[in-house]
Model the fold of this input.
Amino acid sequence: MKFKSIIFVLVICVYFSSSASAELFSSEALLSAEAFVVEMDKSDFRSAYANAAPILQVMSPQDAWIDQQKLSFQLLGKTIKRQLKTVRSRESYPGLPDGNYLIVCYQAQTEYKSKAIEVVLLKEQDNVWQVCKYSIR
Done:
C-alpha cells in the first residue's frame, strides 16, 4: 500500500509539474491528504481528528466534528472511488491565519452519490502538512 502511495504521488507530481504554473506542491502534503482520506474511508474519525492540525481541533470540538462526519457518511455513503482533480496552493484561506495552504480536491463516487467532491485543506506548520479542513459534498 505504501509503495502504491509513493508511486501515485510521483505520477501526480510529474503530471502537475508539466501542467501547473510555477506553483509547486509538496509530495508530503499529498501523502498527508491521502492518509487522511484513508482514515475517513475506514470511518476512523477519531484517528483522523487526532492527526489533524490544531486549527481543525480549535474550530471544531472532537465530538461535534465526529458527529458531522458520521452524518455526512450516512447521507452520502462510503467513498467507492476517488480521483485527484486539482491541487492549489494559497498563502491565505478565508477565516484562517495566513500560512502555506494546499487545497486538494478529489472527484469522488460514494454509495449514494455518483459525483461528489472531496476537499482536503492542509496547512504547513514546522515543515509538516496537516489537514485543517475536510468536506465531501
Summary: Residues 2-136 form a domain with the Nuclear Transport Factor 2; Chain: A, fold (CATH 3.10.450.100). The mean pLDDT is 86. The chain has one domain: 2-136.
